[in-house]
Amino acid sequence: MERYIGMDVHAASCTLAVISEKGRKLRDFPVETNGQALVEAIRMIPGHKHLVMEEGLQSAWLYETLSPHVDELVVAGITESRGPKSDKRDAYGLAEKLRVGDLDKPVFKSPRQFTRLRELSRIHMTLVGDVVRAQARIKSLYRSRGIFVTGVNVYGVHHREQWQKQLSSSAQTRATRLYDHLDFLLEQKKQAEADLLREAKKHAIARILETAPGFGPIRAARLVPIVVTPHRFRTKRQFWSYCGLGIVTRSTSDWIQAADGSWIKARVPQTRGLSRQHNHVLKSIFKGAATTVITQVNKDPIICALRAAPRWRHEAVAREGELGAHDRSNGVADVEGREGVRPRTGRSDDRATRRLGEGSIGRIGEKTVLRVRSREQCSHATLCVAAEESIHLFPGRRPTAWRSHV
What 3 state SS string does 180-202 have? Predict the structure, then answer.
């Protein structure tokens, strides 16, 4: 006996609606938004229980509280409703969508994994935003008095007195209070960051993510409790869309009729952009990591070693016979000294060499090679080698040759 339960959640009360597996409306009733009261109400419903509710402020708490008492619990994304609306209608509508499998946006919930790390990450992000807001208030105070201010010296302890002398006596009192507020927030942020890093060190995946280019301990600690597990995504494309980096293409009037009467695809201009429905924190993490790699590329030790090497464009990496004449003419740079690089098996070295294109990476024997024609390609390919050699998230499925577009 299957029972599908829709729950419309509010701050003071929740409305539960129950329908049968054939779609018959059985009953609906209000319950106080209280953990014990909701558990008792769910237990009173017989049969195999399938519960659905909308994503909201209390969804994580309700998921953790009610999931042990139902056979299935689904959190659905909020959708726009038109026409008549009430708590009863919404609850029955959710239950019916769950019964027929018509939920558009199921939301992933895993409140019991990385719980403490998630809360510390939220505290840290909140304090970072508060610090930025307090600094903006201080600058706006000076600008409102006609004082041009740039940079970060205005926040420093050693320069505050010099800046405050430019204000009137009444404005100085306000500035003093704002500076005290900023000092308090900075101290709280420092403590929150220490707690976050201390908790992140307890998880092995956070230490692995720190080795990725552009990732540090803070970004790794913020990434882990959001993603939780990569297996929640079917492929990497779904993950990039969730991060706000999925490319969206829209077109219309795609087909035209040819002279012979057949229909062919028209070359119409397509609007390309990024997915708007995404996790904003993840997007900021990956954009920050990419910015870090771009700004610090000249400080990478491997790139510095390659650029300092004589005749870096035409150095041979392999012994005589390992590279063909075409490979030597294009120039191959060698990155040696890597531990744990396993030799290729199942394919000849010459064939593996021919598969490498310009600006790409591969292996010959036990060596990792880069085929480059320019200094920029060499820098980009070296970053990919450093990432591939340092991140061992999937050690059993590491690629032996792949293209890295510049």
Answer: HHHHHHHHHHHHHHHHHHHHHCC
